[in-house]
Design goal:
Blueprint (H helix, E strand, L loop, with lengths): L1 H6 L2 E7 L3 E6 L5 E6 L2 E4 L4 E4 L3 H19 L5 E4 L4 E5 L1 E3 L2 E8 L3 H5 L8 E11 L8 E2 L1 H6 L3 E2 L2 E2 L2 H23 L3 E13 L5 E4 L7 E5 L10 H4 L6 H20 L8 E6 L5 H13 L4 E5 L6 H12 L5 E6 L6 H6 L6 E3 L8 H4 L1 H4 L8 E2 L3 H13 L3 H28 L2
Parallel strand pairs: 17-18, 17-19, 19-20, 20-21
Antiparallel strand pairs: 1-2, 2-3, 3-7, 4-5, 6-7, 8-14, 9-10, 9-14, 10-11, 12-13, 14-15, 14-16
Bound molecules: adenosine-5'-diphosphate, 2-acetamido-2-deoxy-beta-D-glucopyranose (6 copies) and magnesium ion.
Length: 426
Amino acid sequence: DSSSTQKLKLGQKLNEGKTKEIYSLVDQPGLVLVQSKNQITAGNAVRKDQMEGKAAIANRTTSCVFKLLQEAGIKTAFVEQHSDTAFIAVHCEMIPIEWVCRRVATGSFLKRNPGVKEGYRFSPLKLEMFFKDDADNDPQWSEEQLLVANFSLAGLAISQCEVDIMNRSTVAIFEILERAWATQNCTLVDMKIEFGVNVTTKEVVLADVVDNDSWRLWPAGDRCQQKDKQVYRDLKEVTPEAMQVVKRNFEWVSEKVKLLLENPASGRVVVLMGSTSDMVHCDKIRKACGSYGVPCVLRVTSAHKGPDETLRIKAEYEGDGVPTVFVAVAGRSNGLGPVISGNTAYPVINCPPITADWGAQDVWSSLRMPSGLGCSTVLSPDAAAQFAAQIFGLGNHLVWSKLRASMLNTWVSLKIADKKLQSCSL
Ligand SMILES: Nc1ncnc2c1ncn2[C@@H]1O[C@H](COP(=O)(O)OP(=O)(O)O)[C@@H](O)[C@H]1O
Ligand SMILES: *C1O[C@H](CO)[C@@H](O)[C@H](O)[C@H]1NC(C)=O
Ligand SMILES: *[C@@H]1O[C@H](CO)[C@@H](O)[C@H](O)[C@H]1NC(C)=O
Ligand SMILES: *[C@@H]1O[C@H](CO)[C@@H](O)[C@H](O)[C@H]1NC(C)=O
Ligand SMILES: *[C@@H]1O[C@H](CO)[C@@H](O)[C@H](O)[C@H]1NC(C)=O
Ligand SMILES: *[C@@H]1O[C@H](CO)[C@@H](O)[C@H](O)[C@H]1NC(C)=O
Ligand SMILES: CC(=O)N[C@H]1CO[C@H](CO)[C@@H](O)[C@@H]1O
Ligand SMILES: [Mg+2]
């Protein structure tokens, strides 16, 4: 990988830690190269060993995890894989805090909270922060301690707003990774991450790396099968055989982590419109479905004027085994949604294009149903797509992660809008 690294024209070394080096890029201001080292540490580098191939494994893990988060819509510093052991990232000034998120109590939490037994489950998730200070063994900090520290990075003061954003982002990131690992029958027990401030945009983004050093994973929820760095921490003696076990565990994770990106058998939205005059409305539904990664097809059929065709089209989509959500778009009297709903076990969402003149009367044809029908009604095309995505999200972690990230991003936008407004009125 050294040849491809040279092609990049490395600038100065900006930073070096226990596991990686950061270089500026001469031709790409605003970006850096994050180079992993073949070294594994524990107990703040008290234990330190070279591990052949460790950098490559860590690289693979980080790349997959950041790709997963980025595709979900989480803002991260990751840009792209560069080589076996290095990736390109947005240049950040790092906030010197490790955010720790826990679903299951284990490790240092048990020592700091005597009486709590290993396996205690946190719902909601437990969040802790640690100030990155090797000399002082990374002390745990409260939110108040972080606020009075008065950090300023890349010109951004770390105030309550930024702390809240990191707090919420950590929870969202954990939930997305937890859900992804669940597809591999793995419990994400806990996780630690770091944030940086994008030096160009002054945004708080997930930075550094997320690799096997960053979490505890228990296959099938079983601590005895743990596949994380704890195996290394627990070694009584570092023998070549023992290091092989640690390495095999790392490889197990890096093989599994690729599977997190695989789309489970995807579903499909079928939008049925009563007339092509509803096309604009339906295109909005299709576009919004796309943003959740849900395929969407549009068809024209009228349950009033061609009920035989309506039922034939319905049967077409029932017959190929692809899980389907029907969205019925019919103005005036909506016969379409209720007729489909009465004749299929798949979910049906009414999304009538409501008009100003008769809308208040028309909408009742989508609301008041004969018994035995379970269709829902949503008026906004975006919301209809979102609801369909939520249905698929129950069985598809990639769709679910997009919904979860979107919820976070909306929360963050509101927070930043409020901060701006407050600073204007000062
Ligand atoms: N995108 C980035 N931009 C700038 N610095 C980064 C970026 N990602 C990570 N770093 C920093 O690079 C340094 C080296 O990382 P690491 O070896 O993990 O250090 P440490 O031993 O302090 O954890 C750390 O200070 C880390 O915060
Ligand atoms: C699993 O943990 C090991 C040890 O921390 C780490 O090096 C590795 O990156 C993780 N898994 C993989 C293979 O990424
Ligand atoms: C961060 O900065 C880069 C420029 O270096 C910019 O392209 C990017 O959109 C910014 N935002 C995020 C979330 O990384
Ligand atoms: C995160 O936010 C929640 C809710 O505001 C708060 O109760 C908790 O103390 C915060 N955690 C940390 C570590 O800041
Ligand atoms: C924190 O920083 C702000 C400016 O960023 C300054 O006004 C304030 O006095 C500082 N507080 C402390 C305790 O240093
Ligand atoms: C998942 O874990 C459970 C134990 O919790 C086990 O019984 C089951 O066989 C596992 N399934 C897969 C697909 O590995
Ligand atoms: C050696 C190695 O595993 N390199 C990998 C680094 O990560 C990228 C992206 O996942 C892979 O394409 C490389 O093969
Ligand atoms: Mg680190």
